[in-house]
Write a structure and sequence with these properties.
Elements (H helix, E strand, L loop, with lengths): L1 E4 L2 E4 L6 H7 L23 E4 L6 E2 L10 E3 L3 H15 L16 H9 L22 E3 L9 H10 L4 E4 L6 E4 L12 H5 L5 E3 L12 E6 L8 E7 L2 E7 L12 H5 L14 E4 L2 E4 L2 H14 L4 E5 L5 H13 L5 E2 L31 E5 L3 H4 L1 H14 L2 E6 L11 E4 L2 H7 L17 E5 L9 H14 L3 E4 L6 H6 L6 E2 L3 E2 L17 E5 L10 H10 L2 E6 L4 H6 L2 E4 L8 E4 L5 E4 L12 H11 L6 H14 L21 E6 L13 H4 L7 E5 L11 E4 L2 E4 L3 E5 L5 E5 L12 E6 L1
Parallel strand pairs: 1-5, 15-16, 15-24, 17-18, 17-20, 18-19, 20-21, 24-25, 25-26, 29-34, 30-33
Antiparallel strand pairs: 1-2, 3-4, 3-5, 6-9, 7-8, 10-11, 11-12, 13-14, 13-26, 22-23, 27-28, 29-35, 30-34, 31-32, 31-35
Helix pairs in contact: 7-16, 8-16, 8-17, 11-12
Bound molecules: iron/sulfur cluster (SF4) and FE2/S2 (inorganic) cluster.
Length: 746
């Protein structure tokens, strides 16, 4: 249909509101309560416009267009209405712009200037509202609130947790948490962007800079495999805050708290600021030339007994060069799967793991089966899509996990299963809830990264793939790190070259734990205490090897104790490169701040080492090679169908499982104090109820030859039997042993 705005003709769709048509054609209408991704409440009245034929000005955000409608966004009727609304909204607003963080980007300030009056008729005393403590991430200045309710609607409609609410009426109206609690949603920081005034503020950013002094640099999240698009705002070479960069295919207008507050760890005191070499049993400062000389010499000396493990948080460029340096030096033992312990699946694995469908297609799925994943906590942005699927399409969601996870969307059925039960579940579907799944429906199975930590991962993944095929379901494999797909594509696995090209002689070759001898260990951006399938095992290997090379941004006890050389690695925000996200998209990120101390972009360090080794390559050639590899890759489905498989035996052993904590999933996140003090981050150990252990008693876990006392809250659970669950966050002050192993308690 056609409508007229300010006497110009515009095309409009049925059911569109005036503000939607105006926004599409860049015609400015002021607003406070309206937000394109929230429901319409039409409460602030700031968007009043003249509609010809209507007695009074109409709210543009809630008025549906009619064919031939004539709207005036300028002119005395509209302007008078807007001026009165503005005066009304400012009655109780403190006008403390000089000390308000929002100043310079405040919608109230801007709209007041454009549409308000310079004087007010209100002479009475303004009301004040006492601030609320709603946690470490978001601080409040509630006197500034104009009751637009965007924050309340966000909680109800997007985050799925009704944390903020509006209480009282009229003069007494307040925004507060219902039971005086902190915000717990992993999306809570989005209320800061939504708040049109300075009532909800970013605690890390508060009072640290003025918005007009900030420089905006676009980047990509390094915290999960979705690759949310972000802007870093910097001042004097420091990241002051992170905000979402809108991307309709990934994060829409939102950002997970780990992305928003995750830069805090960059300035940790544990940053490694110069190269180190060991001398007289101590790490002493050195220079890159000395390190390169020592490392290249050891690589030649221990070629056949070297193992190299690299984080999948590294960029594609670092990965490509890392494997090239090692392979051209005759070292094939390269891997990124440091948290895995079962590699029987690897020859049947897709070239790269991916989500397999577009995120926007999630809402059209009729059945979604979640396997070992807590979407709301581990992939908060994904939870927005799943929540939408339930709301829009009544999608039936089933959750099968070792722990009863809470989600911010409705789950129709959930079961807690031990790894052995999970393996069997998909082969005996006639006895369980899966018997209700119809293969003619749109089905999707999403497998969480913690499944890869299990010692029967091969069997689980094979059984799930066979079941997925039988019900015509897509299979989504969520990566553990932001560039897990990149690690597979760039050949950071022993049995495949970049592009997924098989190396026949390394078929069935698995990583570190299978290599008989490690004289030289090269560990790239991984911390032995937290990033390995078994912390005891890797530390033993470090003790027994002849030379240990670390590329790391942070110092840990084990690096300090066992490293022979340490390259000072810049963090992602100090580097440039690219990641491949779960949508199989290559996304480029730029350097945001300069590296701290003498730390350097990993690519630069590796180029220095390659030069020393006589490998002739530069960053331009690396980009060319990567583009060529990606253009030739033939990516098929994610099914992992293994020729012969032996089911795990039924013996009733007690299994320990470490629950994945996404806020602890990379070295920088581990050092973000604000994130780690949100209260769902409590550490715990949960024991089967049937074990009748007094929660006061001291519990020792015995695994292989090692014993651990886990100091954490002790909980009990009914199911799964024979399973001990451990959740640890941040930088845990204790050994936790293996991620999944058989144990005894004493
Ligand atoms: S706190 Fe901000 S977003 Fe929430 S109602 Fe008040 S003004 Fe609106
Ligand atoms: S934006 Fe239309 S009434 Fe608030």
């Amino acid at each position: 249909m056609d409508i007229y705005i300010n006497n110009n003709k515009y095309q409009a769709l049925d059911d569109e509101t005036i503000i939607q048509v105006a926004d599409r054609h860049d015609i400015h209408i002021p607003r406070f309560c309206y937000h394109k991704r929230l429901s319409i409440v039409a409460s602030c009245r700031m968007c009043l416009v003249e509609v010809e034929g209507a007695k009074y000005p109409q709210p543009a955000c809630s008025t549906i267009v009619r064919d031939g409608m004539k709207v005036n966004t300028v002119g005395s009727v509209t302007e008078d209405a807007q001026k009165s609304t503005m005066e009304f909204l400012l009655i109780n607003h403190p006008l403390d712009c000089p000390v308000c963080d929002q100043a310079g980007e405040c919608e109230l300030q801007d709209i007041s200037l454009d549409h308000g009056d310079y004087k007010s008729n209100y002479k009475e005393i303004k009301r004040t509202v006492i601030d609320k403590d709603i946690g470490n991430l978001v601080t409040t200045e509630m006197t500034r609130c104009i009751h637009c309710s965007r924050c309340v609607r966000f909680g109800e409609e997007v985050a799925g947790i009704k944390e903020l609410g509006m209480t009282g009426r009229g003069e007494e109206t307040k925004i507060e948490t219902f039971v005086n609690q902190s915000l717990t949603s992993e999306l809570s920081g989005n209320v800061i962007d939504l708040c049109p005034v300075g009532a909800l503020n970013n605690n890390l950013y508060k009072y640290s800079a003025r918005t007009w002094d900030l420089k905006q640099i676009s980047s990509i999240s390094s915290n999960d495999c979705l690759g949310s698009n972000i802007y870093y705002h910097t001042y004097k070479n420091e990241i002051k805050r992170t905000v979402p960069k809108e991307n309709e295919q990934i994060n829409l207008s939102w950002l997970a708290d780990s992305d928003r507050f995750g830069h805090e760890g960059i300035e940790s005191e544990e940053r490694i600021l110069s190269p180190f070499v060991r001398s007289e049993n101590k790490l002493i400062q050195s220079d890159l030339e000395t390190l390169n000389q020592a490392v290249s010499q050891k690589m030649q000396e221990y070629t056949s007994s070297t193992t190299a493990v690299m984080s999948a948080q590294s960029s594609c460029e670092e990965m490509y060069l890392f494997q090239k340096i090692l392979r051209e030096s005759g070292i094939p033992n390269i891997d990124h799967r440091s948290k895995e312990c079962d590699f029987g699946y690897q020859d049947y694995y897709p070239i790269i793991p991916s989500f397999d469908i577009k995120l926007s297609e999630i809402e059209f799925m009729e059945n979604i089966i979640l396997v070992n994943v807590n979407i709301s906590k581990e992939f908060p942005i994904l939870s927005v899509y799943l929540r939408n699927a339930v709301k829009q399409n009544s999608t039936n969601i089933i959750s099968l996990s070792a722990y009863e996870y809470l989600e911010n969307f409705d789950i129709s059925h959930s079961e807690t299963l031990s790894p052995k039960e999970l393996e069997k579940y998909f082969t005996t579907t006639s006895n369980n809830i899966l018997s209700n799944i119809n293969k003619d429906k749109k089905n999707l199975i999403i497998m969480g990264p913690s499944t890869t930590y299990l010692k029967n991962y091969t069997n689980i993944t094979n059984n799930i793939s066979r079941y997925a095929k039988s019900i015509n379901s897509k299979l989504s494999l969520l990566g553990d790190q932001c560039n897990t797909s990149g690690a597979w594509a760039m050949g950071v696995v022993p049995h495949r070259l970049p592009g997924g090209i098989e190396i026949a002689e390394f078929k069935n070759t698995a990583y570190l734990s299978s290599y008989p001898k490690n004289d030289l260990l090269i560990i790239y951006n991984l911390e032995p205490e937290y990033d390995f399938s078994n912390d005891t095992e890797i530390i033993d290997r470090l003790k027994n090897s002849k030379f240990n090379v670390f590329f790391s941004s942070y110092m840990t006890d084990s690096i300090n104790k066992y490293a022979d050389v340490v390259y000072p690695l810049a963090v992602q925000q100090e580097s440039h490169g690219s990641y491949i996200n779960t949508n199989k998209q290559l996304q480029v990120f730029n350097q945001v701040i300069s590296p701290r101390g003498q730390s350097k972009n990993g690519l630069e360090i590796l180029l220095g080492l390659s030069k020393r080794l006589g490998i002739n390559i530069d960053d331009e050639q690396i980009s060319k090679d990567i583009n060529e590899i990606l253009s030739k890759m033939n990516i098929k489905s994610n099914y992992i169908l293994i020729d012969t498989i032996e089911m795990t035996n039924e013996k009733n052993t007690l299994e320990k499982i470490i629950i994945r904590s996404s806020n602890s999933n990379n070295p920088t996140l581990r050092r973000c104090k604000s994130l780690l003090t949100t209260h769902d981050n409590d550490d715990f150990m949960s024991i089967p109820n049937s074990m009748k252990i007094n929660s006061e008693s001291k519990i020792t876990i015995n695994e292989s030859e090692n014993s651990f006392k886990i100091k954490a809250n002790i909980k009990v659970h009914d199911k799964p039997d024979n399973t001990i669950l451990v959740k640890m966050n941040g930088r845990y002050a204790q050994k936790i042993g293996s991620y999944n192993t058989s144990v005894d308690l004493s």
